[in-house]
Amino acid sequence: SQQGEEDPQALSIQEGENATMNCSYKTSINNLQWYRQNSGRGLVHLILIRSNEREKHSGRLRVTLDTSKKSSSLLITASRAADTASYFCATEAYFGTGTSLTVIP
Amino acid sequence: EAGVAQSPRYKIIEKRQSVAFWCNPISGHATLYWYQQILGQGPKLLIQFQNNGVVDDSQLPKDRFSAERLKGVDSTLKIQPAKLEDSAVYLCASSALTSGRAYEQYFGPGTRLTVT
């Protein structure tokens, strides 16, 4: 079975708004990664956060990690139509169920 | 830098037939992964290689699926015989080793398999 579970399963927002996705996982980890998948570019790595880090930023992306709750969140600020995609968290080689994000222009 | 190459991109077969997928990882990447992604779901790890050794094949249906990575470079995934539920996209990914651990994965375009 897959390691992580994303919440919500689907999210629809207006362009310019922020989008937050959550991931819960089951076992202890060394790091947690977020990936994006869309039809144009396939599955692409976005950001990695190590188990001893609590927050990490990359451009418009902000990831938090709470190892005591076995959860992580991905925040996309000032969303764009091009952010429309499915987002997955992954621990080691195990992927979650994904959040489908739609950004409406 | 060339990305992860996969072939074929599409394949249609009848149930009980066999099929093989090929993957060439990014040059120098020691770790190679095969995933199965069913529509609407996340990628499911089938097998992970480090060089030419198997790290994790716990989710590989070994009665019908097999994979090899000869010489620690390219890899082949085979299904024999195929079932209807094998219809999915098969993704190959590779990653470099840093301090003995694999991190960021680079994915190929995938092979879309339809079993009729």
Q: Can you offer a commentary on this structure?
A:
The complex is a heterodimer of chains A (about 100) and B (about 120). Chain A contains no helices and 11 strands. Chain A is mainly beta and about 100 residues long. The radius of gyration of chain A is 13 Å and the shape is globular. Chain B is globular. With about 120 residues, chain B is mainly beta. In chain B, the strands form 3 sheets. In chain B, strands 2, 4, 5, 6, 9, 12 and 13 form a 7-stranded mixed β-sheet that branches. In chain B, strands 1-3-8-7 form a 4-stranded antiparallel β-sheet, with no helix packed on it. Chains A and B meet through strand 4, strand 5 and strand 10 of A and strand 5, strand 11 and strand 12 of B.
* Helicity range of chain A: under 10%
Q: Rg of chain B from C-alpha positions?
A: 14 Å
Structural class of chain B: mainly beta
Query: Tell me about the biggest sheet of chain A?
Result: 6 strands, mixed
Principal-axes geometry of chain A comes out as globular
The count of DSSP E runs of length 2 or more, i.e. the number of strands of chain A, is 11
- Largest interface: which pair? A-B, 19 and 21 residues
Please give the count of helices of chain A. Answer: 0
Quaternary state reads: heterodimer
Q: Could you tell me the mean pLDDT of chain B?
A: 94
User: How much helix, percentage-wise, in residues of chain B?
Assistant: under 10%
Order of helices and strands of chain B: EEEEEEEEEEEEE
The whole-angstrom Rg of chain A is: 13 Å
Which descriptors would you attach to this protein?
heterodimer; A: 105 residues; mainly beta; 6-stranded mixed sheet; 5-stranded antiparallel sheet; 11 strands; globular; B: 116 residues; 7-stranded mixed sheet; 4-stranded antiparallel sheet
What is this structure's SSE topology?
The complex is a heterodimer of chains A (105) and B (116).
Chain A: E1 5-7, E2 10-14, E3 19-24, E4 31-38, E5 42-50, E6 55-58, E7 61-66, E8 71-76, E9 85-91, E10 94-95, E11 99-104
Parallel strand pairs in A: 2-11
Antiparallel strand pairs in A: 1-3, 3-8, 4-5, 4-9, 6-7, 7-8, 9-10, 9-11
Chain B: E1 5-7, E2 10-13, E3 19-24, E4 31-37, E5 44-50, E6 53-56, E7 65-68, E8 75-79, E9 88-95, E10 97-98, E11 101-102, E12 106-107, E13 111-115
Parallel strand pairs in B: 2-13
Antiparallel strand pairs in B: 1-3, 3-8, 4-5, 4-9, 5-6, 7-8, 9-12, 9-13, 10-11
